[in-house]
Amino acid sequence: MTVSAKASAGEAAGGGAPRPSADRLEELGIVGAGGGGFPAAVKFRTRVSLVIANAAECEPLLHKDKELLHHSSEPFLRGLRMAMEMVGAREGVVGIKEKYQDIIAELESLAPAGVRVVPLPDVYPAGDEFILVHLVTGRVIPPGGLPKDVDVVVANVETLINIALDRPVTHKYLTVAGAVENPVTLRVPVGITIGEAIEAAGGATVDDIGVLIGGVMMAKPAESLDVPVTKTTGGIVVLPASHSLIQRHNAPMIQVNRIGRSACDQCRFCTEFCPRFLLGHPIQPHRAMQSLGFATGADAMVATLYCCECNLCTMYACPEDLDPKNVCVQAKPLARERGLVFKGDPASITPHPMAEFRRVPMRRLIAKLGLGQFNNVGPLSQHAFSPRTVKVLLKQHAGLPAVPVVQCGDRVRVGDLLAVPQQGKLGARVHASIAGVVKVTADAVVIEA
Ligand code: SF4
Ligand code: SF4
Fold this sequence. Notes:
The chain is an alpha+beta fold. Helix 5 (73-87) crosses helix 8 (157-165). A hairpin with a 6-residue loop joins strand 8 and strand 9. It has helices at residues 5-13, 22-28, 40-43, 64-71, 73-87, 101-110, 129-137, 157-165, 194-200, 244-249, 253-263, 269-273, 275-278, 285-290, 298-305, 312-317, 324-337, 362-368; strands at 50-55, 91-97, 115-120, 123-124, 152-156, 171-178, 184-189, 209-213, 220-221, 235-240, 360-361, 389-393, 403-404, 411-412, 417-420, 430-431, 436-440, 444-448. Residues 264-270, 286, 289, 317-318, 320, 322, 324 line the site of one iron/sulfur cluster (SF4).
């Protein structure tokens, strides 16, 4: 079954006024659709005065939030109001790139009481929650903290639409971009393969490809075209296998460490451009690089914990093409193991005086990444999917894998419950995205139509 974005909005508009509650979000299996997959029910069991809708989509070539706002502004704004009601917020803000003037005008004309639009600079990573909260409010979330620590909840555009739709999460919006015939935004059943999504974009335009899931900056390289789409897959970027981004994402850590140890000249560019460092957080990637060559002790390790893995240091800042981001990621478990956390006064955290002038414009980032040759569009398609089979993963959210409540041979319909969170643990419900007969495996429920 496939329903177009327009139809989804229409269905939602005609579906009455669902009562917002965190328990209901839990029933529906709603998780952060922007990539983090944090269970929405947990996020919305709080009281704050401001909800920020994160429409700052800043992964190069991805457009699904912009397309959703264009085609589904009504359920989006309704979801934002419902979110505000759940947390008792008086105010809602839509944080969106200032370049989308047409969408800003439309949202401003439709915005209900208490909701306003805040245009954001077209920079990377404006969509990082910490950066977004600072851009919108001027407040700094403390290191290791959450938006609620500064009286804010942040929710992605698609998450808010899922709240308004008031039905189990069975489908996902994503952009397929890069070296494909028709870059496009699709609504796909959860559990189809990324290969099927690429085919729906007209297929690859080159023979030998590499695929990045989630974008190019915070991407995971796909191991194969059979990787299933989850509730958090926001984008699929196809590139020639020889493209430098594919090469860099696939570089083994042993090589990253060896080259980093010998070639890092401690110029500090990685730190001076680091968005979290500029926010005033105790993260200095050049110090993590020092740790490759020396036993630097506690400080360098602490510096890695507050890296948000935006990849700006590696993909943009470092003049030597080294990989400080992955050096930080590699050091995090050790820092956690040693309990090396920030112990300072959060009130002492102040943004760098040059922060505003060191923001990285998207057009410069796209040029630096060698993506200028690709068509930077992603219009919403009405493509209808009728997969013969889907693989619905038991872990497609933050926390632990869900536990199946179906058995091999059971017949399910779209929206039926497949799995529930482990008792007392962080997790999310998982539902059927197509009708058919199920097979339960170690990590998934496979449905055959
Ligand atoms: S920017 Fe590159 S060379 Fe300079 S300190 Fe950072 S990792 Fe080393
Ligand atoms: S990936 Fe690099 S630039 Fe981004 S937060 Fe981590 S250290 Fe800073």
